[in-house]
Amino acid sequence: MDIGFIGLGNMGQGMAANLVGAGHRVTVYNRSPDKAEALVQRGATAARTVAEACRAEVVFTMLADDRAVEAVTLGPDGIAASLPAGSTHVSSSTISVALSERLAAAHAEAGQRYASAPVFGRPEAASAAKLFVIAAGAPEVLQPLSPLFDAIGQRTFVVSEQPPTANLVKLSGNFLLASAIETISEAVALVSKAGVDRQQYVDILTSTLFAAPAYQTYGGLIARQEFEPAGFAASLGLKDVRLVLAAGEQLQVPLPVASLLRDRFLTLVATGGGHLDWSALATLAARDAGDSDHSA
Amino acid sequence: MDIGFIGLGNMGQGMAANLVGAGHRVTVYNRSPDKAEALVQRGATAARTVAEACRAEVVFTMLADDRAVEAVTLGPDGIAASLPAGSTHVSSSTISVALSERLAAAHAEAGQRYASAPVFGRPEAASAAKLFVIAAGAPEVLQPLSPLFDAIGQRTFVVSEQPPTANLVKLSGNFLLASAIETISEAVALVSKAGVDRQQYVDILTSTLFAAPAYQTYGGLIARQEFEPAGFAASLGLKDVRLVLAAGEQLQVPLPVASLLRDRFLTLVATGGGHLDWSALATLAARDAGDSDHSA
Amino acid sequence: MDIGFIGLGNMGQGMAANLVGAGHRVTVYNRSPDKAEALVQRGATAARTVAEACRAEVVFTMLADDRAVEAVTLGPDGIAASLPAGSTHVSSSTISVALSERLAAAHAEAGQRYASAPVFGRPEAASAAKLFVIAAGAPEVLQPLSPLFDAIGQRTFVVSEQPPTANLVKLSGNFLLASAIETISEAVALVSKAGVDRQQYVDILTSTLFAAPAYQTYGGLIARQEFEPAGFAASLGLKDVRLVLAAGEQLQVPLPVASLLRDRFLTLVATGGGHLDWSALATLAARDAGDSDHSA
Amino acid sequence: MDIGFIGLGNMGQGMAANLVGAGHRVTVYNRSPDKAEALVQRGATAARTVAEACRAEVVFTMLADDRAVEAVTLGPDGIAASLPAGSTHVSSSTISVALSERLAAAHAEAGQRYASAPVFGRPEAASAAKLFVIAAGAPEVLQPLSPLFDAIGQRTFVVSEQPPTANLVKLSGNFLLASAIETISEAVALVSKAGVDRQQYVDILTSTLFAAPAYQTYGGLIARQEFEPAGFAASLGLKDVRLVLAAGEQLQVPLPVASLLRDRFLTLVATGGGHLDWSALATLAARDAGDSDHSA
Predict the structure, then answer these.
(1) What ipTM was assigned to the predicted interfaces of this complex?
(2) Which chain B residue's Cα is nearest to D265?
(3) Going by DSSP bridges, is the β-strand pair B113-116/B153-160 parallel, antiparallel, or unpaired?
(4) C126 — contact with chain A (CB < 8 Å)?
C-alpha cells in the first residue's frame, strides 16, 4: 500500500519502520528532515512537504500535541488540503477529543476518510511492533487498515465507530497512569516516614497485587527518585489531565481524581518541576509530609 | 512446634491447615466452634477457650477487625493474660497501627513476644499457601517464625523491626486497591458515556499497562456491575481508609487521594451500599455522571 | 457624554437608566428590541444595530457570557469594527480573562480604548446605583470614566492597569460565593442530620461570624430549599468555576476548592439540575448523606 | 445561684467575671491557681480542687480540649464524682461530639444534669458579655440556666434537647471558618499573582459580599501575612477539622471540603507551621503557586 507517515519522533520512527518492514511503500515526513535518514536507508522515501507525504492511500500522523496535529492537518498545504478524496488519515497522536472531532469534520467535508488509532506502548514497543492499537472509525474505513495495525502492534482494539472515542480511551489511560503515580507517591510518603525502605515497598507491591508494567515502571522511578531525564514530562501530564477533564466536561462526567491530579501537576509545574518526569508528583507527597530529604 | 491459631474465617482456615500440613501441633480456636471441625479432621486440636489455644510457643490471630483482636488479646482470659512468657503472638489481622502499638506494649509488659504478620492474598491463596507475608518484629522474634511463614505463604517480606509498621504496609495496600477501584470507576463512567463497552475497556487496560491482579479483579467486577455478594464490603473499605488516614495523621503525612476515598465510601455507606462490594464505588461515578442505567 | 449601552438584561437595564439619570445622552441596544422601551421613555435613544450604539465616546457592554461579548465586539459590524478611534469600550460582563485579553488586543489594533469594569451586585443594586465597580485599564482611559462609574455604583475599585485583571477579580468573587454555598451545604447536611433546624442554623451563622450578604442570601435559599426559579443558574456557576480554573491554569495557581466545586456543579448539571439556582449544590450534600428527604 | 467555674483561660476569665458581676456566688478553679486572683478580687472564691468547685448548683467548664474536659469531668475526684445529684454541669468547651455523649451518659448515671453550651466569640466578646451561646439539653435543665447564659452572652440559641448537638454546631462553625480561610487563601494566591494588591482585594471582598467578621478578621491576617502570634493555632485547626470529620462519619455525612482542609492543615503542621495562626493556610496556597515571596 502507498502510505505517508508524518512525525518521526521516538514513537513514529519505530512505527514507520515496521510499515516499511511489512512491505509497504512508505513516504515519510518530519519537520526536522534528518529524522528521516534512518528510514530512507531502510527503504522509505523522504517527503519535503506534508503535501508530498499525502500522495498516498493512507497517511499516518504521530505528533506531539494538538497544536502540531492541527497545523499539519488543517493548516495551509496540510493534510485536509492535500490528501486525495477517498484516502484515509490515520491519527495516532494523543490529542483532545475536541480536535479529533474537528479533524473528522474537516476530512468528511473534503471527501477524505479519517480514523483515530492512538497507541499504548513506549518507544521500545513501537520498534518491536508490540504496540496496542486503540482504533475507532467507520467499519469500511478501518477494515483495510487492519494489516497496517498488525504491522505496528501486537493487538488492535476497535472501540467505536466514532474516531474521537479512541482518543478518549487513550487519554483515559494516561489518567489511570497519573492516578497510579499519585497513589504510589502518597503510599510511599506514608510508609517511608515509618522507616520502610522505598525500594522494598515497591517490590512488595509489584510482586503481589500490582504486578503490572505501570506500577513497575513508576514505582521504580519513585523508589529511586529518578525524575530526570523525563520519560514523559510533568507539563505533558498536566496537558493530558486537562484534556481528560475537558472530555469529562463535554460528556458531563465528574472526575474527582482527575481534578486532584490537575492541581498536583499544576503545583509541580508552578514550583519549577514541569520538565521533570511526571512521576515527580512523588516529590509533592514527600514535601507535604515534611520529608525534605525525599524532595526533588 | 506447638502453635495456637485463633480465628478460623476464610483466611484463617487455610492458614491453619497449612501449618498442620507442615507438621506442627496446632490448637485452633474460633468463637463459633463448628469452624474447627475440618481442621480437627486434618489433625488439629480444638480449644474451648482462647486461653487453651495459648498453651503454645506461638499463637496466631487472624480476626476481622480491631475490636475482635482487642477482645481476644487484651480482654479477660485473653492472650496477654494467658500466653506463657517468652512465647510469641503473631498478629495477622488487618488492624490499626494504633492497636498494634498497644498490643506490642501489652505483650512486652507481660514478658511475651509479639510480631505483626499481615498477609496479602485472598482465601484461595491462603488455602494454597500462596500468601505474601508482610512481617515486622525484632529479629530474634522473627527468626524462629520463618518456617511458619514459609508454610503459609509464597514469600515473606520483613519490613521493619517495629511490628506496627507491617500493619501500616498492609493498610497502605488496601489504600492502593481502593484508589485503583475509584480510578477505574471514573474512567469507566467516562468512556461508557461515550459508548465504549465496559468489558472491552477493562480488557484493554488489563491487556496492556494494567495487567495486574488488582485491575483484573476489580475491573471485571465493575464491568459486570457485580457488587453482590461482596468479596470485601464497602463498610470495611471505609474502615480501612479511615485507619490509613489515622496512620497518616499520626505520622503527619497528608493523603489527598485517601481523603477523597473516605468521602466516597462514606457516601456509599450513607446511601445504603455498605453491604456491597467495595468496587461498588463505581455506582457513584456512574450516578454522578447522570448515568442512571449503570447504577446499582 | 455620548454613551452607547449594549445589553439590557436585568443588570443592564438599571445601569443604563442610571446613566440616563446622570444626564448623559445614552443610545441603547438590545438583541430583543422591546427591552429598550422603558429606557426610551426615560430619555434614551434606541439603536437598531450595534454599530449605531457605537457612535459614542464610550460604549458599555453588559452581556450574558463570552459568546455574546465576542459576537458583539469582534463579530461583523461589531464594536471593534464600528467604534470611532479614541472612543472607549467598557466591558462590564463577567467574561473570561482570555477573552478580555483578546478584546484588549483587538481594540488596541483598531486604535480604540478598552477598560474592564465588571460589577458586584444584584439587579436591585444595579437599579439603585449601589453596585461595586471593579475597574481596570490604563489611567488615562479610566480617568474620564470615573463619573460614569459613580453614576452606576456606590464605589469603584481600580485594581490594575491591565483590563483582564478586573475580570479575574470578578471571577474570583464568584468562586468565593460558590465556595460559601458548598460549605454551607455541607454544614447544613451535617447538623440537620443531627436534628438541628436548618433555618435556625443559618440564623445562628448569619447572626454571628457570617453576618454577610453572601451567607444571608445563600444560607436562606438552602434553609428553605428554594432552588427555583434560579437567581443564578447552576450551569452558569459551572461556567464561572471553569473560567476561574482556566485563569488559575494560565497563572499557574492551583485552586483545590475550585476543582472540587467544578466536580460538584458538573454532577448537578449531569443529574438534571443545571437550571436550578447554584445554591442547589445543597441537594448533593444532602443526597450524599443519604438524606433523601432534603434533596431537591 | 451557687456556681462553680472550671477553666480560667482567655475565654473563661471573662465568662466567670460576668457571672460574678450578675450577682452569683462563683467558686473558680484553674490548674494554675494564679489565674484565679483577678476573679477573687472581683468577689469570686478560689477552689483548691475540682471537687471544691463542684459544691454548687451549676458548674461550668471552659477548657482547652477533649483531654482536659475528660480529665476534669471523668477523672478521679472529677465533676462526675463530686457534683451533687441534681446539680448541672454546663460544658462550654469546644469538644468532640463523642466526648459530649460520654459526659451525658456519665452524668445521667450519677443522677446529675448536663447541658452543652459552647460559645461563638473571641476573648474580647467574652469579657464584654457579647458571646453567642449555643445551648442544648433537656428543657428542664436549660430553663434555670437561662439567666446565666444571659449574663455571659448577647444571645442564646437552643438547638436541641441532646447536649452533643450543641457541640456539633460549634464544630461546624469552626469548619466554616476554616473553609473561608482556605478559599480566601486560594483567591488571594490567584489575584496577587496577577498583580492585584492583597489588602485592596480583601477590602473589596469585605466591602461587598463578604462584609462579615470572619472575612474581615482572616482576610486581614492573610493580606498582611500576619501569622504570628497565633490567635488560634493551626494545630488546633487540624484538631477541630478532625472532630468535624469524626462527627460526619458517625452521622454518615460526607464533607469533601472538610477532607480537603484536613490535608491542608496536616501539611501545614507537617512542614513546621503548627504553631502559626490557622490563617497560615494561605502560605500553602502561595507556595503551591510558586509564589515564594509570599510564603511564610
Answers:
(1) 0.95
(2) B254
(3) unpaired
(4) no
Contact by Cβ (8 Å): B55, B77: no
CB–CB of A144/A72 below 8 Å? no
Kindly state whether D289 is in contact with chain A, defined as any CB-CB distance less than 8 angstroms. Answer: yes
In order, the DSSP letters of B25-73 are EEEEE-SSGGGGHHHHHHT-EE-SSHHHHTSSSEEEE--SSHHHHHHHH
Number of Cβ within 10 Å of residue A128's Cβ equals: 12
Q: Which amino acid is at D205?
A: L
Best of A240, A252, A255 to disrupt the C interface (most C CBs within 10 Å) is A252
pLDDT digits (tens, 9 = 90+) for D82-115: 999 999 999 999 999 999 999 999 999 999 999 9
H helices, E strands: number in chain A: 15, 9
In sign, the C-alpha dihedral spanning D226, D231, D233, D236 is negative
**Are the beta carbons of A4 and A32 closer than 8 angstroms?**
no
In the structure grid, which three cell numbers stand for residue B246, read together?
489515622
Half-sphere exposure in the Cβ direction for B42 (13 Å, CA)? 22
**Alpha-carbon span C249 to C242, nearest angstrom:** 10
Indicate which residues of D carry an active-site annotation: 170
- Rounded Cα distance between A210 and C65, Å, is 47
- What is d(CA D94, CA D100) in angstroms, rounded to the nearest whole number? 10
Give partners of C (≥3 CB pairs < 8 A): A, B, D
Helices D256-270 and D234-251, packing angle to 10 deg: 150
Question: 3-class SS at C177?
Answer: helix
DSSP strand pairing (A119-120 vs A131-136): antiparallel
CB atoms D253 and B270 under 8 Å? yes
Asked if C287 has any chain B CB less than 8 Å from its own CB, the reply is yes
Residues of A with a known catalytic role: 170
Candidates D288, D291, D293: best to mutate against A (most CBs of A within 10 A) is D288
The CA distance from B263 to B185, in Å, is 15
| Interchain contact A22–B (C-beta under 8 A) | no
Q: Where are the beta strands (DSSP E) in A150-234?
A: 153-160
D132 inside 8 A of chain C by CB: yes
The pairing of strands B153-160 and B131-136 is parallel
From first to last of its 296 residues, what are the pLDDT tens digits of chain A?
999 999 999 999 999 999 999 999 999 999 999 999 999 999 999 999 999 999 999 999 999 999 999 999 999 999 999 999 999 999 999 999 999 999 999 999 999 999 999 999 889 999 999 999 999 999 999 999 999 999 999 999 999 999 999 999 999 999 999 999 999 999 999 999 999 999 999 999 999 889 998 999 999 999 999 999 998 999 999 999 999 999 999 999 999 999 999 999 999 999 999 999 999 999 999 999 998 654 43
CA atoms within 13 A on the CB side of D179: 31
The answer to whether D253 contacts C189, with C-beta atoms less than 8 Å apart, is yes
Report CA A243 to chain centroid distance, whole Å.
12
- Among residues B150, B69, B154, B81, the alpha carbon closest in space to that of B120 is found at B154
Identity of the residue in D182, D186, D210 whose CB atom sits nearest the CB atom of C212? D210
- pLDDT surpasses 50 at C14: yes
Which residue from A184, A186, A203 is facing B255, i.e. has the nearest CB? Answer: A186
Q: Which helix (H) or strand (E) holds C135?
A: strand C131-136
Measured in angstroms, the CA of B92 and the nearest CA of chain A are apart by 17
Q: If contacts are CB pairs under 8 Å, which of residues 171-230 in chain D contact chain C?
A: 172-173, 175-177, 179-180, 182-184, 186-187, 189-191, 193-197, 200-201, 203-205, 207-215
Q: Do C201 and D169 touch (CB under 8 A)?
A: yes
pLDDT tens, position by position, B68-106: 999 999 999 999 999 999 999 999 999 999 999 999 999
**Which chain C residue's Cα is nearest to B285?**
C267
